Amino acid sequence: MLEVNTIGLDLAKNVFQVHGADAPGSVLFRKKLRRDQVVRFFATQPTCTVAMEACAGSHYWAREIKALGHDVRLIAAGYVKPFVK
Questions:
Q1: pTM passes above 0.85
Q2: Which of 21, 39, 37, 28 is closest to 83 using CA atoms?
Q3: Is residue 19 classed exposed, middle or buried when 0-12, 13-18 and 19+ CB atoms within 10 A define those classes?
Q4: Which residues have CB under 8 Å from 72's CB, separation 6+?
Q5: Structural domains counted in the chain
Q6: Which domain does 58 fall in, by range?
Q7: Would you place residue 37 in the very low, low, confident or very high pLDDT band (cuts 50, 70, 90)?
Q8: CB atoms within 10 A of CB 28
Q9: Which of 5, 14, 37, 62 is disulfide-compatible with 23, CB 3.0–4.6 A?
Q10: 46 located within any domain
Q11: Is residue 85 pLDDT above 60, yes or no?
Q12: Is residue 27 domain-resident?
């Protein structure tokens, strides 16, 4: 089984989208998480890089996820948009 190398987290008010990929970039999973499930989900994941768009709420989530041992990267909105296309 391939190990998760990078997780992309799309923040929202209630339902967050999570996208996991291995080192070559192959998709391993896509999930919807409610706000109360986010910390529990990342606690079960192996240590990896977590990327999310820099916004007001992302700094809170970055601190919570980093406390679990993950490497968190905040990306400016202008650089996130090309990933969506």
A1: yes
A2: 21
A3: middle
A4: 49, 50, 51, 52, 62, 65, 66
A5: 1
A6: 6-84
A7: very high
A8: 15
A9: 5
A10: yes
A11: no
A12: yes
Q: Which two tokens stand for residue 38?
A: 């986010």
Domain annotation covers residue 1: no
Choose among 28, 21, 24: nearest CA to 6. Answer: 21
Identity of the amino acid at 14? N
Structure tokens at 36: 């109360």
**Mind giving me the DSSP string for 17-77?**
EEEEE-TT--EEEEEEEEGGGHHHHHHHSPS-EEEEE-STTHHHHHHHHHTTT-EEEEE-H
CATH of the domain at 54: 3.30.420.40
Question: In 10 A of CB 8, how many CB atoms?
Answer: 19
- Domain assignment present for residue 60? The answer is yes
Burial of 20 (0-12, 13-18, 19+ CB in 10 A): buried
